[in-house]
Amino acid sequence: MAQVAEQTKKSPMGGIGKRIAYYPGCSLEGAARAYDVSTRIVARDLGLELDYLEDYNCCGAMETKNVSFWGTVLLNARNMSLAKRQGHNAIVAPCNGCSFSLQRAEYFLNTDKSVYNRINELLKEGGVDPLDEVPTTYHLLEWFYHEAGPEEVKKRTKKPLRGLKVANYYGCLYTRPHFYARTYSHTATEEEEQARPHRRETADDDEHPYYMNALLEAAGATNVEYEPMHTQCCGGPHSLSDEQVSEKFVMMLLQTAKRNGADVIATECPLCHASLEMYRHRLMMKGVPDVDVPAVYFTQLLGIAFGHSANDVKLKDNLSDPIPVLKRLGLI
Amino acid sequence: MAIHERSLVEPERVLRKERLVIDGVDVSGDWNLVILPRVIEDYDLDFLDEVLKQPEGKTILQCYQCSYCTASCPVHNYWDERYNPRHFIYLARLGLIDELQKRADVIWRCVSCHKCTHRCPKGVLVEETLKAILKVMSKKGLIEEYPSKKFDTFFLEAVFEHGRIEDGELLFGWIEKQGYQVFKDPILKKPIPFLGGTPEWLKQLAVKPIKSMNIDFLILNAKHMLFHPKTKNWNKFKQVLRKVFDEEGVSLAH
Q: Residue A220 is part of which domain span?
């Protein structure tokens, strides 16, 4: 599988800002608490500062956009306005769904003047400051990579994740579609790159993302081959409404990871994570082979490498129970 | 003879003879298969106009039918070949609503992975366009209510009501909508996950935090169940949202 060659990989370039507006999203304050807690720990250790977005609302995820276009853009514009109020021009979202929704709104606000004008009017009507400038949204992974980077992670690592084989699962919306995520191929020719007018310099590679691989490798873990499943769908917004399809997709993800020798799957989205854990359990109940790989947030793994305990990064919250695997390898 | 995009041809339109002899010449092999032509009785020119009116469907005319979207689509490749984004765009542009209706059982199955949109060489927002087609089909009554729409509306209602969603409420509310008997405590009417007629996998997962004595996690979730996480000053914004929904023709239960 064609992976990004070492020499074409980007080195951390900064420029996003060490202090950033933090949009956790609903999930991280509920079932995905472990992701929130470990994100804060890792950010603090890396010398980065998260400014919690007060009084935010749901981004609408993938669901509301199918029902109401204007409603979804409006929901996200409100969050952007809150970020502006707190004096930020950049937002970081740890969830693929949230970063997608914000970036989608960003795309429509920036490219369509009529959308921009109408949304500003609606914001005013709703008692929120209108947007004079549209803030940029970054995924947590991108922020960590460019503001801290693998070198910094290596420096902070006290207990390297030696012997841990990780399958890095990025999910769909971290790099796709390029209109919103503004990603592009690092090996593309100049001409092809120019065809994507909205591309962002700090963005990950579109079809072969590697930021999570680089960060976890710096923390001492071994990455197993996981392409092309690393950006394959987990069922996403249909996790609950279309169980048959989701079950099959998750089965493929888990079996590929297991058969490629992974001890754990590292995730970076609470919805992917929940979907993997839920269907892993259901598949195991059915007796499907090779599906018992637990899912761990990449920030939890980084937290452990930085010397925090299993309780600090809330490993107990993971319903797929990664504790025995990590204990066996002597990491916790 | 191999049929290109076999999934687009209904089985009853394929005629195949084991041995075919015409004028004394045996033509079995390459020539013993005939696909009956499709009869188009009616088309709806209005359909394309409606799709173009949707903010998401504006790029539909840029499509040049290369089928890169279909080749990328996980639902097409791993689930059902009849789910074919290129074909749906083609049918919508010609207004062949009968043909679209024949695929009503799969057309809602898009998982929004955005591979199609990402890879489209013509800059069509494929995923969004397909959702626009689906929206227009719903509006015209060409498709009955489908599971993903039920869930989407249910989700939107939760967002609209409180400004934020709560995972437990969403999950159990949906399970209840599916027809399972969710056990609720008699006083506060909140679901108790491991009692009642909820599916076995859900019961087993719900018991896990109790078994592992993950006390603070249980407290957090109990707190969220009792006091729904809310956005402050939501009421004023809610009115604006309602106005937008009314304009778009979105009907909510509340």
A: 150-174+209-328
